[in-house]
């Protein structure tokens, strides 16, 4: 009888610890997932800061201004049309026909 009482007490303790243990393990897994998210976000932040610093250089600003069609004072803007047709004819000549 004493054995069954001890087995019952152990089973009761096991049942009482099951839910908190499951909760602990779930929280531990979620914490690891959040830590991985934080590491990924920190890496993304470093990359974005690097790109921002690179985009703020005078060369990058000039390149972007040229892309937008801006010119420096005193420069002339030339618009060349028909580049695609010229490239196509050049490719046709290079193929031999």
Summarize the topology.
Elements: H1 2-55, H2 58-67, H3 83-95
Total helices: the number is: 3
| Poorly predicted parts | none
Q: Give the end-to-end Cα distance, rounded to a whole number of Å.
A: 103 Å
Class by SSE composition: mainly alpha
Elements, N to C (H/E): HHH
Q: What's the count of strands? A: 0
Strand content: under 5%
- What is the mean predicted local confidence, pLDDT? 89
Large-scale geometry: elongated
Estimate percent helicity.
over 70%
Major β-sheet, in short?
Answer: none
How much is the radius of gyration in Å?
A: 35 Å
How many structurally independent domains?
1
Structure summary:
The chain is mostly helical.
Could you explain the architecture of this structure?
The protein is mainly alpha-helical. It has one domain (2-95). The chain is 79% helix and 0% strand. The protein is elongated. The mean pLDDT is 89.
Index terms:
single chain; 97 residues; mainly alpha; 3 helices; 0% strand; elongated
């Amino acid at each position: 009888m004493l054995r069954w009482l001890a087995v019952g007490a152990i089973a009761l303790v096991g049942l009482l610890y099951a839910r908190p243990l499951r909760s602990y393990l779930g929280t531990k897994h979620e914490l690891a997932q959040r830590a991985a998210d934080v590491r990924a976000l920190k890496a993304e932040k470093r990359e974005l800061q690097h790109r921002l610093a690179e985009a703020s250089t005078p060369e990058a600003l000039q390149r972007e201004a040229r892309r937008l069609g801006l010119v420096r004072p005193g420069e002339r803007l030339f618009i060349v049309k028909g580049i695609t047709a010229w490239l196509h004819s050049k490719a046709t000549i290079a193929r031999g026909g």
